[in-house]
Amino acid sequence: MGVHEDTGQLFWDGKEIVTKQIVRLRGYEVFLATLAAIGTFGVFALESGKLVGWW
Asked: Where are the domains of the chain?
């Protein structure tokens, strides 16, 4: 294991270690993730309302 002195990149056995990988979502995946986030927030809002006695 080693570190390149100029760039700070990590190496193992002479090969660079990938420390980040960009994930790109397709259009329908973004749509489904948005629906899941909205649904999760809705459940949070309902349960928070029950907790404080609003309904």
From this structure: 25-55
